[in-house]
Amino acid sequence: MSRDRAIDAHYADRFNPSDPVMDAARTISAEYSTVPVSTTTAGTLTLLARMARPATAIEVGTGTGVSTLALLRGMPSSGILTSIDIDADKQAVARDLIGVARIRAHRVRMIHGRGEDALARLAAGGYDLVFVDSEPLTYDRLVPLAIERLAPGGLLVVNHALLGGAVAKPANRAPRTQVVRTMLDRIVERTDVARLILPVDDGLLVLTRV
């Protein structure tokens, strides 16, 4: 990220609203060596969820609950979020914070396990929104599975889609970069999705199933 873009991102994070529960989730994430989504990315998720109004949604990567809270706050009050993470301890933190935020517990279903395994067990075509925030090395497997879970018109959001500028640099041949590039190339070849990349933080890939 250029110096000017870094300044812009820092300003946006200070300008965009947060709240004490989100701040607590971010503070606790440091204890688990987890990097949560930024205030700007969280706000983008909430906005997209408000626009999509999903009755059912999936999150791959619960963490300590920052993105979980962001999605739930944008979804309709009857919306149900299925959140997947390999770390049950972090999910327990997220569930506690959801309670602190006075979001009804039945609106969240936690699944403990690997993203690929859990996604494969969920109903194909049964979800209105999917958010993927996982290790980019898995994206060649995760993203096609996530698209399969989408109902027609459903929305997929993938974090780390630009890897903070690495994807756009041809000289960067790191394994994570190459996996993300390959995933994006395959997205371009698909005729069943409409696509957009937003240069927010590490990059957000937004797809609609058509």
UniProtKB/TrEMBL annotation:
It comes from the Bacteria. InterPro entries: Cation-dep_OMT (IPR050362), SAM-dependent_MTases_sf (IPR029063), SAM_O-MeTrfase (IPR002935). The keyword S-adenosyl-L-methionine applies. Keywords: Methyltransferase, S-adenosyl-L-methionine, Transferase. PROSITE patterns: SAM_OMT_I (PS51682). The keyword Lipid biosynthesis does not apply. This is O-methyltransferase.
